[in-house]
Amino acid sequence: MLDGYHKKKYVCKLLFIFLLGHDIDFGYTEAVNLLCSNRYTEKQIGYLFISVLLNDNHPLMNLVISRIRDDMSSRSAAFVNLALQCVANIGNREMAEQFGSEIPKLLVSGETSDSIKQNAALCLLRLLRVAPDQMVDLDWTPRAIHLLNDPHLGVVTSAVSLIEELIKRNPEECKSCVPLAVARLGRLITSSYTDLQDYTYYFVTAPWLSVKLLRLLQNYPPPEDTTVRCRLTDCLDTILKKVQEPPKSKKVQHPNAKNAVLFEAINLIIHMDCDRKLLVRACNQLGQFLQHKETNLRYLALESLCLLATSEFSHEAVKKHQETIVSALKTERDVSVRQRAADLLYAMCDRSNAQAIVGEMLSYLETADYSIREEMVLKVAILAEKYAIDYSWYVDTILMLIRVAGDYVSDEVWHRVVQIVVNREDVQAYAAKTVFDALTAPACHENMVKVGGYILGEFGNLIAGDARSSPKMQFELIHSKYHLCTPTTRQLLLSTYVKFINLFPELRETIVEVLSQDSNYRSSNVEIQQRSVEYLALSKVVTEDILATVLEEMPPFPERESSILAKLKAKKPESDSLPSTAKTGERNQQKTTSANDAEKASLTPGTNGTAEADLLGLGLTTTAPPTTTAETSKAPSAGANNQFLADILGNGTTEAGSNALALSKPQSSPTTLMDLDSEYIRLIYRPQGVLYEDALIQIGYRSEFQANLGRVQLFYGNKSGSPITSFSSKLVFSEICLTTGRSPLNLDLRPAPTTIEPEKQVPQILNIECLVDFAEIPVLNVTYSNHNGSTQLSFPLPIFLNKFTQSAPMDQPTFFARWKLLCQPGQECQRVAGAKLSFNLEDIKQRISGSGLNILPDIDPCPTNIVCAGIVHTASQQVGVLARIESNNFRVTVRSTKASVSECICSILLTELR
Where is this region: Disordered (predicted)? Predict the structure, then answer.
């Protein structure tokens, strides 16, 4: 027989083996026997083993409960504490059922030692959280609240945590804790008292208890009792004054402790929102922190100022720091601080400073970090709409937004500007003229084409009197963009053309000819073909009166909540933007005139809004985009299945090509460029698209790349009426760099939800770092189950080397000088495509620009040849690339300092031009 010492020794070894990752299926009985020992160390090891290894259904659990009950009734405080710690560590429903009535007796008993009370409070807190339905008898709550007066720091600290949990269950019953908490806080803060003066942390008395008490008080409105409220105000005033005192220690722990108490006090001041002096003083103190050398302190100051900006008392005080906040937005190194600065500018905006703030945010957007651009675009759009006194300024702002950050302007933004222009006659002519001028720019984003097409189709007649914007000029300008756009935009432009037939009868023959072209009339895209056929018939068959009725100007949109607000709420809900301590002060925030109230009253009528954003535009939401009169008659009901993939004009198309180009079939293994089908090749130069789609699931892709870093958002949409379960995704990338022996790509695929509800969409994030150049394409394997059984899909992700390529401008002498230097063997790769390719110069330039290379004009003497340059960014080096594409025999020549880069870029160019 082993004695207690050896049992303890071997149980320790078994515990160590388990912690190393090995399964243990023996030794449990010996560990339970250690609980019967009268030696503290042996009992301690037994409880440690039980807490770590024993599960709820273990056959020895009843015996363990019996031993715990014996130790709880022991006269030894050490044994009682061990039992309480074990109950808290295991913390299951059975423990709550067995000991839920015994532990409170230990907490409120006058004979219990301080250490037992402390452990009992924490143990009850654990049981209340894991099994609240088992803890129904809370008669001991009033006596637990009086533990706030306990002289022991550990007891009162653990009691505050327990009381906070009790408040969540029954706030009224715990309301008596407010005066006790205020009194205890006053004794801690005021120097004339000696309460817990022995518990100082770098000259700050019990900072953690002070923080907990301040947080506890945020669960209730300001005290109604005048005496209690005055005492609380004095405490907060004292905390603000102490920050101004000279530091008593040079060590960093001293200001950290003081600031912890300060920021929690400011949160309480914001929550109360009833004392103007305290709010202004808190704002001034935070303003001093905006230029502090500590990044964390600047971040916290910006976060708290966001909350202060929502108060009518401190809103003006926050505006005084506008220049400092703008400077932080532009100069801060940490992107999270810049994000908070943008949030604060949004919160502090009102009619007096709206144009200045919107202007600063627009100028920053050009260089903003890509992770915050989309959110900033939404905020600029909301502010411009809410505070637009002159709607011409609003139109200019949104169009500038599209120019600066077109890739990040969601459909909700351009839908909204269209709705406002339709609803306001005073701005229609100006909007038509402005979008016409914007479309004349050499580089025009596709969203600008959408806005221009819609507005000119409705109000182009208002500017037709000007020779520079005659009907013919309008049509030719829009049609020059037609072949460069995605199928979705082409569908909208076809609607614009048929509108022109009504506005400008002299263009009828030209437009009929366009609609009759095989590329439209017999398009592989179902929606383009359908519109061409129907619009052509409409223009030939019906009478002029019927045509004018069908194609008349759109009526004003009904007044509804702006869909941009709904998208911003979905992207950044309140729980992410505001600390939990301030949420209970929401009733006070209704007074403010800041931009946070934009959701209550929009300046202009809007569209249907939804709180669930479809970030890729795959149509998995209920947001209703603008529709033309010509399409209203054929729009299906909102509940129809074909509304699941919403078309850009709201016509209910289900054709996958209307949003992006999908794979015709999933791939089964890692693939190269030659394995890709013609539709998928378009994703080489496009940032988003549909990777796969069938009757059950739609998988979308959206990417952002900067230098050697990339971020891909995958979207999985459940198109069926039943949930998708057991969903999982995995990346396969087998290429190994011969020089480093490592993978060329560092792929970080974040977990995705395992269940996708019917007609819902879930995102998944993939972060990419390009270490060296690569040729293989990663493959995504997706498995899921539904009512039809288990399904496995595999298809390549459009991650190519050109995604990490950035354009490089240069003049003719520089280009030829570098071209001649790259003449060593292996530096040039030249391939000929053959004569099967159809040459469309503008289309090819568009594709090459989308691939990251910079088109260099006036370099090659032959005008149909294309010369371009770029820089391939990897973590190890940057490789310059020069390329020349000859149109006569479609020969592609690429030169760079690295042979593998030349071959890969040459293959990409040749492939995307197929």
Answer: 568-613
